[in-house]
Predict the structure.
Amino acid sequence: MSSAIRSHGFTALGPLHEALAKLIGWRALGFAALLGAFSALAFAPFHLTPALIVSVTCLIWMMDGARGMIRWGRAMFMRGWAFGFGFFLIGMHWTASPFLIEPEKHAVFLWMPLIALPGGMALIWGAGAALAGAFWSASPSRVFIFSIFFALSELARGHLFGGFPWNIFGTTWSPGDALSQAAAIGGVYWLTLLTLFISAAPAAMVDTRESRGVMGRALPVLMAVILIGFGWAWGAQRIAQPSAMSEETVVLMDAGIPQAQKYNGRGEAVLERYGEFLRDIESDPNDIVIWPEGALPFELLANNYALDVISAYLGQRSLIVGTTRRSFDGRDGVYHNSLAVLQTESGRAELIALYDKHRLVPFGELPASRIVPFGEYMSAFLPSAMQQLATSGFEPGSEPTVLFPANLPPFVALICYEGLFPEITRNAGPQREEARWIVTISNDAWFGAGMGPAQHYAQNRYRAIESGLPMARVASRGATAMVDGLGRETARGQRVTGDPAGWVSSVVRTPLPAAMPVTPYQRYGPALFWLTLTGFVVLAFVSWRR
């Protein structure tokens, strides 16, 4: 049936539409995968949004051909799946980095991050494409239908099996720039819905109808241009104001040890380096010092020597630090990925606030109750740092919350993976509106030196835009920086002399930006997403033609 396709609309695009719609078999799957791979350039560190627009437009034209096949459901699914596979393979290839820390042991398992992960994630997009096929039309309504079902697919990806909302479509806009500010109104999923429509709109300019309704075909593009224009104008006005600063000063510190060295008997060297930072970096008694997730390769709160070193140099400052923590429930101990706040009292560093990470990484930080039966098996192929805890696993914390440590402004804590989820900051307990900033700690050394750390940082900055709260971020071998409530970077860590070979330290002392007024998203949550989705359903129905 594909051979009978005749394209109508904008003449110059007709031959391209016909060529893409007629692709079948492996050629169709291969080209869809290439489109997905190309669209990965639309995200950090590149933010080439036109790549997303071109890729999505071409995918829709391929779906036009698939819908005309006898087994259209399978054809639609496979095109969506192949597009997703290429996208996730390129966009998340950095997930192979932990398996290359000790390649002689773990390279044989590279199929997991490079085949199983992108293939599994792409199933969600394949399902979205197949469901969209049930309502497909040659008319411009297919632009709305595509946007609806892929937005729902992205929402599902952010929540199924704990969720993995990495590089969702709304994050194509560079955080802190004008168009990214829309996340403050409706959140990143609302921005994703709008971004999908903007990316899909050019596909409406060509279809298989013989009618010559040029204006009808051009209308989605006009709507997209208006959306971009209004969004840019509003966002530009919003970011025109300079960053207001509070009275607090924060010192961000990362020793930058390579992941391959961290758990190789270097615990004392890491502690010594952080001790040097506390001793030598310019600082005042009331400063707030922050170290990254798992800053030290041992349980800090159970190590008296490490606490003595911190006590000797911390003075009147406060220290926020990430650490593995072990608690005991009956006979068996369980591990937590924790954030601790320490202050010196009577010459001794004392714990004054504690947060346990509650959103654990699927297949990476499984809860102890789920992993124990398979601990010995998993230890055979997990990277060394994971092996140490594989037989016990991690136990999730109870819930997101606002911490109120003495002498510090209240803050929401996000540990690594949690920084991907907008709902954590918004749902941080009944006192969420009392938070004045976000503290994000991470170990980006797992991600390698390529796209991974930049993508993680960009997505974290959207949490600041959505909430209006400034963010202090310390990431081991990642972006250590201060971000204001508009997602703009106000300070970036700089390297300190004296690093051991291969280490890349990152330290900066900077004022904490003042919090912005409570944003519409922080107050009303995803309501605008569902309202806009309903509006798209109405527009799809109105413009639908068989």
Notes: The chain has 19 helices and 14 strands.
